[in-house]
Amino acid sequence: MIKAFENFEVWFVTGAQLLYGGDAVVQVDGHSTEMVAGMNESGILPVKVVYKGTANSSAEVLDVMSRAEADPKCIGVITWMHTFSPAKMWIHGMQKLRKPLLHLHTQFNEEIPWETMDMDFMNLNQSAHGDREFGHILARMRKNHKTVVGYWKDKKTLEHIAVWQRVAAAWADAQDMRILRIGDQMNNVAVTDGDKVEAEMRMGYHVDYVPFSTVLEYFKKIEDSDVDALVAKYNSIYDTSQVLFDDGKQSIWNAAKAELTLRALLVDKKAKGFTTNFDDLGDVDVKVSGMGFDQIPGLASQRLMQEGYGFGAEGDWKSAALYRTVWFMSQGLEGGCSFLEDYTLNFDGERSSILQAHMLEVCPLIADAKPKLEVHYLGIGIRKALTARLVFTSKVGPGVTATVVDMGNRFRLVVNDVECIKSKPLPKLPVASALWIPMPNFEVGAGAWILAGGTHHSCFSYDLTPEYWEDYAEIADIEMLHIDKNTNIADFKKEMKMNEVYYLLGKALK
Ligand code: MN
């Protein structure tokens, strides 16, 4: 069990019926208890599974699903049909359940006991057809869910369940997620904007505006001694040999004060993420009044992202929420994740790549070595000033990046497998960065992403596989377009056209 998920549980409900008599149900119950114990002891599942008994009638199904809905610890339900379980009895319960659902198609015994199997044994161990009956009612109801098929002790089966558990945990986290927008979208930018009402209805998170005057209320209360202590901490964690000049030291001090301000604001507002805007940083005459940030709070954004706060630059609240979800799902995994932006292209034939960076705000979780804390001039936005940032390059290796865009009638999740490659030194560009080739190659990968209307901002992870995003899109009930090694533009365009029809007409069936 992962400590981060210790307050969560997933319920396991076994379908049966009383046709075979009470003794059969007692056996089903015993097998289910043994299976759930084995799954929990596997060391593979990050969230505890709790066995909730057999469901043998419509009333029993409705009762357990109602309790699952009401229990805040329960983040999803796993169902399995040990015997045949006539699926009309699942209709009301499935209508009630809105939390994530996983249908496990497995069987208690691994192999057929060829020598001893009789009709009683076969009637008891008949998930082969019980799970098809159950699958039918989910299909008939157009009920979103994940189907996992395999023997319950197999690592591969358990790993599919583990992925879904992490996504279900992040989904639960998003239903209680508040994102603070410090400033609006960057003027005129389309792709990072969208319908915040629909986002809350569809993906759960809530987005609030925070005027900079509110930020200043927190800024004013920060004690100098606390800023000094944080600067000392920076000096102990990071290589600060570049910032020994006086103005550099002052910039670090200002960055520490910005971090303490944002942290106090986020904690007080019980928020899980925030956005910034380089034109909204406090008093215009900050050098006289001292009331405001000296530049965008780059170092603070980097360090808060590392702790799991969602972040989106230039008012990008969708990326802030998605980054928080990426970080939440990845807890306990080793690779790291970050908010990133497509910045500059490097044409190099089949090795053509995209430099991923931002003005400052890249998460140190993806760094390949200890970051350097540096101070340099940044001439963008309302302030043109020296400012602090962590500088590093990312690890090499495969990863997946994702974004959500608002298509007007639906949200579209765009996912791209990428390969991070080694970057050359960038002595005149002192910001954190990654360099990647989008799959299947730059031409098709970037082309498909652009055709799909994907953002220049995305949320990248070394840990999450496309399966996580499939599960997320299924739970959120949003469109997903996945660009991978098999993508070709002609099929991708057809998929987008088919999806257009589905979201106009197919939704009417639900
Ligand atoms: Mn940006």
Account of the 3D structure:
With 510 residues, this protein is an alpha/beta fold. The chain is built from 16 helices and 18 strands. The chain has helices at residues 22-41, 58-70, 91-96, 119-124, 127-140, 155-174, 196-203, 212-220, 224-237, 246-268, 286-289, 298-307, 317-329, 442-451, 466-476, 489-505, and strands at 9-15, 48-55, 74-81, 101-105, 146-149, 178-182, 206-210, 273-275, 310-312, 337-346, 353-357, 372-378, 385-391, 397-406, 411-420, 434-438, 457-461, 479-483. The strands form 4 sheets. A 6-stranded antiparallel β-barrel has the order 10-11-16-15-14-17. The chain has a 5-stranded parallel sheet with strand order 2-1-3-4-5, sandwiched between helices. Strand 10 and strand 11 form a beta hairpin. Helix 6 runs antiparallel to helix 13 (317-329) and helix 9 crosses helix 10 (246-268). The protein is elongated and about 85 Å long. It binds manganese (II) ion (MN). Manganese (II) ion binds at residues 313-314, 341, 358, 457.
Question: Judging from the principal axes of the Cα atoms, what is the shape?
Answer: elongated
Q: Mean pLDDT, nearest integer?
A: 96
| Rg measurement, Å | 26 Å
Strand order in space, largest sheet: 10-11-16-15-14-17
User: How many strand segments?
Assistant: 18
Q: In terms of per-residue confidence, which ranges show pLDDT below 50 for 5 or more consecutive residues?
A: none
The percent range for helix content is: 25-40%
- What ions, cofactors and ligands are bound? manganese (II) ion
Number of domains: 2
The span between the termini is 36 Å
Alpha-beta classification: alpha/beta
Strand content: 15-25%
Largest sheet entry:
6 strands, antiparallel, barrel
Count of individual helical segments? 16
